[in-house]
């Protein structure tokens, strides 16, 4: 309710300001006096009646026009607020910093509009224009300033479109990385890929820039080969991330790894991607300085071509192609870093191995490429000029630092490059739309030349934007591994993994209760509610099933007893009777020994838990589980109730992890978890409820 009040207060203030500005635009001879107010002061008390009525008619029309304009602006403000809210509701919670940053940058437009209004009303442009262009061109400077102002508006609009494209690509990458991480942990799937890679000698070829252009920057690449290449790279990066290899010879894996074997590397990359996109949206001062330098360069180019727009338009198109080539080279540089950081898997016939086990690879290729960098040669001969100038006296350079531009400062440098590329793309399109295309249409050039200009001007931006997803994913991976790994994000992913186990255990208990209810209502159909997944039960599924089993096995006996069900249901706020607990045990107890083994639990898990749930199903499941946990029926889950749920499962939450999770869920800071906040928790882990098959390798 408070949020709604704030919106209407904002609208009321905006309406008042719009009214004042609109009235001021209609101002009379005195700039400080709006025409409506001037008329009210200057209206004669007596005079010709007809003249007075005509004048009053003009006033009515003018006042009505201003009122309509204000109402129209209020309607636009309401639409803007509705669009903003709909975007925020549709976006993932972790994407909120990106959305907020985007709308924060849009406020720059309001600041520029206020500055433009003040400057034009002071009359400075008229005086300056007369001195620069002569008495007959007193409006020339004002028109130029307004054109630049509109140009900035279009630039920010196209920049916002770029950001929304990145948000959409981020959602796709979230799903892709989840699939890749699942595939890398599936022994049978990896064995199949190893066999395929062993029969394709071309997969061992080193990537060059020209090959990269032909392979990545065209839409005609074989999808299966691209999939195997990406999956192999992801596999190698994940392996090196898990083993956390020492930076010094002999580059042995870390003895006490903080990252478990089953670490969700895909989830880690997703969180890093959200952080990076949030930083990219907030344009840095360095970015604006670089854009200012680029503007000065084009000013000098305009002087050289003597303001011949026809020549300048072709130079602008050529610049677009240069930006495209630079973007391709930048992405190729990211690929070089990733290939150097990834483990060099060279599979042979037997490929079953654990993440920490010995790699089945050939000879000297066992270590990743970065371990073969000669630091002495790099420092003396290969170190970049900018690194020599700006990084003198910095900390010790490692072999991994040598892979990056500006070494340890590489990620910050890359972020600025990405920002400049995005803003220049928006500037390029704005110039085409506002200046180049209208000029070409008025020139009367042949239709063939117009079409050629249209194709050549838009094609580089189309190619650049079509590869945004690949560029962002490579950039995020390169800036989140090795010396740039993020311990805070690692801790968050490990905590989220524990939450996912609790959610799966809660869903299991919910399904089990439903099955018992169906059986009691219809004893003749004991399997009512059973939905066979019909899918292959992979090693990853088996591991998830085992962790769910362990979470419910509170007594640590290796089997689930009736008392275990009772302890878990008590933690969920459910007062179960002895008869209901025995009925739950009987549903899973296939051999009738009074306890549930892992094999019996696995059968139930496969048939009742591994099923597809849509948005409605997730919401219904969340609402049902929320009412169970909300023991006092207050409509809010208190911190003690939520902590009791976490403690009832054998997952191993620390006190700090519980505090961090509660703070994350309690978005409105009222000390409790509402139903909407609980629904968002399940939506965050919605991939647990989707049957996403692993892609076919051939």
TrEMBL record:
Keywords assigned by UniProt, alphabetized: Calcium, Membrane, Repeat, Signal, Transmembrane, Transmembrane helix
One GO molecular-function entry? calcium ion binding
Region forming the signal peptide: 1-22
Which residues belong to any copy of the EF-hand domain? 540-575, 576-611, 622-652, 653-688
Record InterPro entries = CALM/Myosin/TropC-like (IPR050230), EF-hand-dom_pair (IPR011992), EF_Hand_1_Ca_BS (IPR018247), EF_hand_dom (IPR002048)
Question: What domain of life does the UniProt record list for this protein's source?
Answer: Eukaryota
Mark the transmembrane ranges. Answer: 101-127, 147-167, 285-305, 311-332, 413-435, 447-465
Q: Name one Pfam family in it.
A: EF-hand_7
Q: Which GO terms describe its cellular component?
A: myosin II complex
Q: Which family does it belong to?
A: Belongs to the centrin family.
| Name of protein | Calmodulin
Please report the organism this UniProt entry assigns to the protein.
Seminavis robusta
């Amino acid at each position: 309710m408070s949020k709604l009040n704030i919106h209407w207060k904002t609208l009321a203030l905006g309406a008042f300001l719009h009214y004042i500005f609109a009235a001021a635009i209609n101002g009379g001879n005195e700039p400080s006096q709006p025409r409506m107010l001037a008329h009210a002061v200057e209206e004669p008390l007596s005079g010709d009646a007809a003249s007075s009525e005509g004048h009053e008619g003009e006033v009515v029309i003018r006042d009505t026009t201003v009122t309509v304009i204000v109402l129209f602006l209020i309607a636009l403000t309401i639409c803007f607020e509705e669009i903003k809210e709909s975007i925020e509701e549709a976006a993932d919670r972790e994407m909120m910093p990106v959305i907020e940053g985007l709308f924060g940058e849009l406020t720059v437009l309001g600041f520029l509009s206020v500055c433009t209004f003040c400057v034009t009303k002071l009359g400075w442009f008229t005086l300056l224009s007369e001195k620069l262009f002569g008495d007959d061109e007193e409006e020339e400077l004002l028109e130029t300033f307004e054109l630049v102002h509109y140009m900035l508006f279009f630039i920010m609009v196209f920049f916002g479109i770029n950001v929304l494209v990145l948000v959409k690509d981020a959602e796709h990458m979230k799903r892709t990385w989840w699939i890749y991480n699942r595939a890398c942990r599936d022994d049978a799937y990896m064995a199949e890929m190893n066999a395929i890679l062993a029969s394709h000698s071309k997969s061992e070829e080193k990537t060059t820039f020209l090959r990269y252009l032909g392979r990545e920057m065209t839409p005609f690449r074989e999808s299966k080969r691209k999939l195997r290449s990406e999956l192999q790279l992801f596999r190698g990066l994940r392996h090196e991330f898990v083993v956390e290899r020492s930076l010094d010879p002999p580059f042995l894996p870390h003895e006490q790894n903080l990252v478990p074997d089953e670490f969700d590397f895909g989830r880690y990359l997703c969180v890093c991607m959200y952080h990076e996109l949030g930083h990219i949206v907030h344009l840095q001062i360095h970015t604006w300085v670089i854009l200012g330098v680029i503007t000065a360069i084009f000013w000098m180019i305009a002087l050289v071509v003597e303001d011949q727009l026809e020549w300048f338009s072709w130079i602008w198109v050529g610049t677009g192609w240069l930006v495209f080539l630079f973007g391709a080279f930048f992405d190729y540089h990211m690929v070089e870093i990733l290939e150097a950081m990834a483990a060099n898997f060279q599979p042979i016939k037997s490929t079953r191995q654990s993440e920490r086990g010995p790699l089945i690879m050939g000879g000297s290729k066992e270590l990743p490429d970065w371990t073969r960098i000669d630091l002495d040669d790099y420092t003396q001969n290969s170190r970049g000029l900018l690194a020599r100038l700006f990084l003198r006296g910095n900390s010790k350079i490692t072999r991994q630092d040598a892979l990056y531009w500006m070494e340890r400062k590489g990620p910050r440098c890359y972020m600025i490059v990405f920002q400049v590329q995005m803003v220049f793309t928006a500037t390029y399109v704005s110039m085409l739309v506002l200046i180049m295309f209208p000029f070409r249409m008025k020139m009367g050039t042949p239709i063939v030349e117009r079409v050629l200009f249209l194709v050549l001007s838009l094609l580089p931006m189309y190619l650049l934007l079509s590869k945004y997803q690949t560029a962002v994913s490579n950039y995020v991976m390169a800036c989140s591994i090795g010396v740039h790994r993020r311990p805070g994000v690692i801790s968050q992913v490990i905590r989220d993994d524990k939450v996912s186990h609790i959610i799966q255990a809660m869903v299991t208990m919910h399904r089990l209760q439903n099955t018992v209810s169906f059986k009691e209502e219809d004893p003749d159909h004991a399997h009512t509610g059973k939905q066979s997944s019909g899918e292959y039960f992979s090693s990853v599924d088996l591991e998830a099933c085992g962790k769910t089993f362990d979470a419910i096995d509170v007594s640590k006996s290796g089997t689930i007893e009736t008392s275990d069900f009772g302890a878990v249901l008590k933690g969920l706020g459910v007062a179960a009777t002895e008869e209901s607990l025995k009925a739950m045990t009987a549903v899973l107890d296939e051999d009738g020994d009074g306890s549930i083994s892992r094999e019996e639990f696995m059968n139930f898990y496969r048939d009742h838990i591994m099923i597809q749930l849509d948005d409605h199903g997730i919401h219904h499941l969340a609402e049902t589980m929320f009412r169970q946990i909300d023991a006092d029926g207050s409509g809010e889950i208190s911190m003690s109730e939520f902590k009791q749920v976490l403690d009832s499962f054998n997952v191993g939450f620390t006190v700090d992890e519980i505090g961090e999770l509660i703070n994350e869920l309690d978005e409105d800071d009222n000390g409790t978890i509402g139903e909407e906040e609980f629904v968002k928790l399940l939506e965050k882990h919605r991939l647990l409820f989707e049957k996403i098959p692993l892609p076919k390798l051939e």
